[in-house]
TrEMBL record:
Active site, UniProt feature: 217 (proton donor)
GN (gene name): deoD
Its biological purpose: Catalyzes the reversible phosphorolytic breakdown of the N-glycosidic bond in the beta-(deoxy)ribonucleoside molecules, with the formation of the corresponding free purine bases and pentose-1-phosphate.
Binding-site list for a purine D-ribonucleoside: 17, 192-194, 216-217
UniProt similarity note: Belongs to the PNP/UDP phosphorylase family.
Protein name: Purine nucleoside phosphorylase DeoD-type
Residues that bind phosphate: 33, 37, 56, 100-103
Site residues by UniProt (Important for catalytic activity): 230
Entry-linked HAMAP family: Pur_nucleosid_phosp
Length: 244
C-alpha cells in the first residue's frame, strides 16, 4: 500500500492542517473525534495502513478493508474542528463520503451506555450555518443511502441501533441545568459536538455524510465509560461504518 500511495502522489503542499498529498486519502473517510481512536482503527481493522497525516497529532491513515480502500482520520472536538477537517477533505482531497464515528451522551430514556445511534438529523445550538446566509433555519441531515446501508449492516451483524435526531452542541459543560431536559423533551436521542458541521459541509459540497455514535455516558442516569474504554472498545459502530 505504501508503494501504491507513493506512485499516486501529485505535487501538493497540503493544507495548514493536513500534510497528505493528492491521492493519499481514499474516497471514503471514517472520522472519530479522537485521533488515537483513528490510530486504533487503522491498527486493528485496516490492512497495510499508512499514516498520511501527523500535523497537530491529528492522525490520518489509509489502508484497505476487505479489499476496498478506506481512510480514517481524527476530527478533533467541536464543530469548528470538524468544520476545518471535513471541509478540506471534501474540497482539497476529493473525498466523497465521510462517516463520523464518535461518542455521544445519552438523553432518551431508552438509550443506554454502549448503545449505537445513527443520526438521521443533527440539531444544533451552533452558529455554524450563519455563513450560508440562508435567512432561515437549515436542517442538517444524513445521506439517506448511507443511513439505510448502515441500518441494514447493523441488522446483518445483529447489532441493535436507534435512528433519530442528535444534538450537536458547542458547550460541553452547560451552566443551564434544564438545557438537556428541553432537548430531550423534543425527542433528541443524544448529544455530541461535531455532526451538524459535517452534515452542513457535505450539503454545501454535494457530498455524502453519516454520523454513527456509541453512547459513552448518560446525562440523566449517570452511566459512563472511562476514557480508555471510549478509545478502544466501540467496535460495533466501527464495524457498521466499515461495512458500508
Amino acid at each position: 500500500m505504501l508503494k501504491l500511495l507513493q506512485n499516486r502522489r501529485v505535487a501538493y503542499m497540503g493544507t495548514p492542517h493536513n500534510s497528505a498529498s493528492k491521492g493519499d486519502i481514499a474516497k471514503t473517510v471514517l472520522m472519530p473525534g479522537d485521533p488515537l481512536r483513528a490510530k486504533f482503527i487503522a491498527e486493528h481493522f485496516l490492512e497495510d495502513a499508512v499514516c498520511f497525516n501527523r500535523v497537530r497529532n491529528m492522525f490520518g491513515y489509509t489502508g484497505t478493508y476487505k479489499g476496498k480502500e478506506v481512510s480514517v482520520m481524527g476530527s478533533g472536538m467541536g464543530m469548528p474542528s470538524m468544520g476545518i477537517y471535513s471541509y478540506e477533505l471534501f474540497s482539497e482531497y476529493d473525498v466523497d463520503r465521510i462517516i463520523r464515528i464518535g461518542s455521544a451522551g445519552g438523553y432518551a430514556d431508552d438509550v443506554h451506555v454502549r448503545d449505537v445511534i445513527i443520526a438521521m438529523a443533527a440539531s444544533t445550538d451552533s452558529n455554524y450555518a450563519s455563513q450560508y446566509r440562508l435567512g432561515g433555519t437549515f436542517a442538517p441531515t444524513a445521506d439517506y443511502g448511507m443511513l439505510s446501508a448502515a441500518v441494514e449492516a447493523a441488522q446483518q451483524k445483529n447489532i441493535p441501533v436507534k435512528v433519530g435526531n442528535v444534538l450537536s452542541t458547542d458547550v460541553f459543560y452547560h451552566v443551564d441545568s434544564e438545557y438537556a431536559t428541553r432537548w430531550k423533551n423534543m425527542g433528541v436521542l443524544a448529544t455530541e459536538m461535531e455532526c451538524a458541521a459535517l452534515y452542513m459541509n457535505a450539503a454545501y459540497f454535494g457530498k455524502k455524510a453519516l454520523g454513527i455514535f456509541t453512547v459513552s455516558d448518560h446525562l440523566f442516569t449517570g452511566e459512563e465509560l472511562s476514557a480508555e474504554e471510549r478509545e478502544t472498545t466501540f467496535t460495533d459502530m466501527m464495524e457498521i461504518a466499515l461495512a458500508i
